[in-house]
Amino acid sequence: MNAEELREATAALCDSVERFCKSEIAPHVSAWDAAGEFPRKLYQRAAGLGLLGLGYPEELGGTSAPYALRMPVWRTLCRHGASGGVQASLFSHNIALPLVVALGSDAVKREVIPPVLAGEQIAALGITEPGGGSDVAALKTTARREGDEYVIDGEKIFITSGMRADWFTLAVRTDPDNKGAGGISLIVVTGDAAGLSRTRLDKMGWLSSDTAHLRFDGVRVPARYLLGREGAGFKAIMGNFNGERLGLAAGAIGFAEACFDEALAWARQRTAFGQPLTQHQVIRHKLVDVRQRICASGAWLDAVAARADAGDMGPDWVAEVCTLKNQATQTMQFCADAGVQILGGMGYMRGTVCERIYREVKVVTIGGGTEEIMKELAAKQWGF
Ligand SMILES: Cc1cc2nc3c(=O)[nH]c(=O)nc-3n(C[C@H](O)[C@H](O)[C@H](O)COP(=O)(O)OP(=O)(O)OC[C@H]3O[C@@H](n4cnc5c(N)ncnc54)[C@H](O)[C@@H]3O)c2cc1C
Questions:
Q1: Residue 290 in contact with residue 335, Cβ under 8 Å?
Q2: Of 130, 215, 222, 288, which alpha carbon lies 20 to 30 A from 163's?
Q3: CA 85: distance to chain centroid?
Q4: How confident is the model at residue 1 (pLDDT cuts 50, 70, 90)?
Q5: 134 Cβ inside 6 Å of ligand 1
């Protein structure tokens, strides 16, 4: 695809994503938040539009797509769907499946991936444990080999789509003698495995996304579900975080735009002291500050996507992705705060986009690696 074809394909797909969001997501988001979940059929609708399979191999039911296409699509989804809960669960496979694509055997890939990309099954990623999420190398859940099986014992927490997932990509310790990164492996677990129990967790935001605490009590899985070789999990998990962080950055910019859209429309029609809010300099300057940050973060996102597509993932790649994630999530924070302020009391009311996003912004500065850990990784790679 040349640059012109890519631009046209991206514009066409973003256009259908916008229409999909406006008709099938945005009108229902408040009701889904109140219900604590969205209908499973939404997965099939998203799959029908090709959204679940974007960036996956065609032989597994996906469509190859460069970052330069995927990032604007992701941004559009968040801008017009305006629900972090829907985005997190509808696309939880995007943090779980790349590890299966990269490390699974052909048979495991064929078993796990096509039904998820078709929207028939749900995939989730289980790394974080009650004992900690930032220090991945310290995880405690064990998988011990017994004949043709692994037996898993331990706990995972804050797992997105954890209540509904049919498949988990799970980080486990296969070498009990190695308490560090070298003892960690990745394995696939089915949602109906005996010995797996799930408890729903209540949250500040992302209300329509199911988040779970998982317990594994002697859960047996076939040894062929091991992804890659024993002990190779940590490096793969770290690599996988880059994709997750790029997606989170694109989403954060989309949510910032959703706040901007609502705040601008409100400021144009709401009057105070006899004139529209936009006629008050403080308010229109606030809108400019919002737009300025969205433009800056969006331009950086485009540049990083172009780097990824060019295969230019040199020695500063992790630092670039981590700081972009912080830039984008801080942009979202700024815009959500400004949006609520511009809406005044209405911005504090359930049902407005700014109110929802204001509650949802905190999690993106924590999930996929906290703001502090992003800075640590960047400082290390930049050699400060
Ligand atoms: C809604 C939600 C959904 C999530 N979904 C998933 C999921 O699907 N799968 C999954 O595996 N995980 C998921 N997570 C977990 C998330 O990735 C972790 O919460 C995150 O990595 C932080 O881990 P923690 O909560 O254990 O905090 P901790 O690691 O205990 O950190 C606590 C605080 O200490 C700071 N800190 C820790 N170490 C350092 C350091 N070296 N220097 C400076 N500060 C430090 C952190 O930045 C943070 O502010 C989800 C979390 C939430 C809230």
A1: yes
A2: 222
A3: 10
A4: confident
A5: yes
